[in-house]
Design a protein that fits this description.
Strand order of the largest sheet: 2-1-3-4
Structural class: alpha+beta
Helix content: 55-70%
Strand content: 5-15%
Number of helices: 8
Order of helices and strands: EHEHEEHHHHHH
Number of strands: 4
Distance between the termini: 39 Å
Bound molecules: glutathione
Shape: globular
């Protein structure tokens, strides 16, 4: 087995890559990183000094691959399987990348802003940044709701990298700012994602850590 994933089961960007790995039953070794533990953090930063996960290490090809989207592109290129994570057609591939970017930048990032603001020492909260993040999340949810009125998956009938990005982003966004009443198509899409075996498995593995999510 040449692939090792450095990750944490609770992390939304790591779940995105887990979904891609589980979709194609790609074998990999797990290296859980605990950033709160000095040794674990130091070991991980030797692999990727930026210190953000997920990171994929491929010993067979001597490649260290950071960034969730780049990892999924790498898997699609070097370890393809029955789920085509990035379509072969260049136009469809561009659209898939665009939707992947959309979920990362306009759902995952503002969702994380809401969660991490809760971890700040009292008196150091970023109220303005928080309001901006919530407004962005609301706009994004409205756009997703429109798009998903007629689709099963982000790109239509085929599950892709865009759905890997959407699953944890929408799951946690719904936790911090529930959208079931206002964005019914987005909520139905999230329900489909949660039933998809790859994401259901990632969620089940994250379950023991949910108590660490700041309320
Ligand atoms: N652009 C990166 C974002 C990765 C990211 O933000 N990871 C978070 C966990 S979900 C992280 O490592 N947080 C720890 C930190 O910032 O110290 C990707 O797509 O992989």
């Amino acid at each position: 087995m040449s692939l090792t994933l450095y990750f944490h089961p609770l992390s939304s960007f790591c779940q995105k890559v887990l979904v891609a790995l589980y979709e194609n039953e790609t074998p990999f070794e797990r290296s859980i990183v605990d950033l709160a533990d000095a040794d674990s953090s130091a070991r991980f930063k030797k692999v990727w000094p930026i210190g953000k996960f997920p990171v994929l290490r491929d010993d067979a090809k001597d490649q260290t691959v950071p960034e969730s989207s780049i990892i999924i592109e790498y898997l699609a290129q070097h370890y393809p399987g029955r789920t085509q994570l990035v379509p072969a057609d260049p136009e469809l591939a561009r659209q898939t990348r665009m939707r992947d970017r959309f979920y990362d930048l306009y759902v995952n990032v503002p969702m994380q802003k809401v969660v991490t603001d809760r971890l700040r020492p009292s008196g150091l909260n970023d109220f303005h940044g928080l309001e901006e993040a919530k407004a962005l999340l609301q706009t994004a949810c409205g756009m997703i709701d429109q798009k998903m009125a007629t689709k099963t998956w982000a790109m239509g009938d085929a599950f892709s990298m865009a759905d890997c990005a959407a699953a944890p982003s929408l799951f946690y966004a719904n936790m911090v700012m529930p959208f079931g009443d206002t964005c019914k198509n987005a909520a139905a899409y999230l329900a489909r994602l949660m039933q998809r075996p790859s994401f259901a498995r990632a969620l089940e593995e994250a379950q023991p850590y949910f108590r660490f999510i700041p309320k």
